[in-house]
Design brief:
By secondary structure, the protein is of the alpha+beta class. It is 36% helix and 29% strand.
Length: 213
Amino acid sequence: MNLERTEASKSMGCTVNCATISESDNKEFLRIQQDLTTTGVSAGAGLQKAVVARLGDYEIRRCDREDIPSVIEVNMKTLPEHYSDYFYYEILSEFPETFLVAELHDVLVGYIMCRIEYGFSQLKRLGLARKGHVVSVAVNEDHRGKGIGTSLILASQEEMVKKSATECYLEVRVSNAQAIRLYQKLGFKIEGRLEAYYRDGEGALVMAAKIGK
Ligand code: ACO
Ligand code: ZN
C-alpha cells in the first residue's frame, strides 16, 4: 500500500519515497493514524493558543483555525508551492501539535506545518519508523535571519518526539541554498534526491535528521 501518497499530498506535490508495506504494517499504520487523529481532536481549542517558545518579542505558538488565512498569506508570499485551503485545515485538525506559527505583536510572520507518518525509515537502510514530515515552513522576508525558522523547526521536532517520532524529514528544492544550509545546521543530512519533483521540473533533496534520544 502506498502510505504517503494521500490525496492531499498528491495535490500539493509533497510526496516522497512512496513505499509498499505489508498488511500488518498497514494495520499498525492505520491504528497510529487513528490514535493521532483522536489525540488531535481531544487536544481541543483550549490548547491551540499554547505558546511553545519565545524569541525576543516573537512568540512561537500553536496554530489556530483562525490563523489559517494568515498562514496562507505567508505561504503565497514566500513559496512557489501553494495548497488548497482545505489542505491546511486538514493538517491542522490531524496534527495540531506540530502546526506552529510565529507571531510578532499579533501579526503572523511565519509557520511550520508537519505530519506524523509511519513508513520506511529515511535513515536506516531497512525498517519502519515513525517520522515527522515537515510539509512546509516559511518566514516572511522582513523577519528572516532572526532565528524564527530555527525555532519553528526545533519546537515542532519537540512535539514530534512527544508523538514518538524518531526521525524528521522534508523535501527541499535543490536550488534553495539558504534553507538547505539551515537544515544542515540543524543536523539534517541529504538522504536522497527526487528528480523533477516540483511542477516546474525542479528536483528535490530529501533531508532527514534523527530526533529524540
Ligand atoms: N534573511 C534570511 N536569512 C538570513 C538573513 C536574512 N536577512 N540574515 C542572515 N540569515 C541567515 C541566518 O543568520 C541563519 O543562518 P545562521 O544560523 O548560520 O546564522 C539563516 O540565514 C536563517 O536562519 P533562521 O533565522 O533561523 O531562519 P529564518 O527565520 O530566516 O527562516 C526559512 C528560514 C524558513 C528557510 C526562510 O528563509 C524562508 O521562509 N524562506 C522562503 C521559504 C522557504 O524556502 N521555505 C523552506 C522550503 S522547504 C520546506 O518547506 C520543507
Ligand atoms: Zn513533503
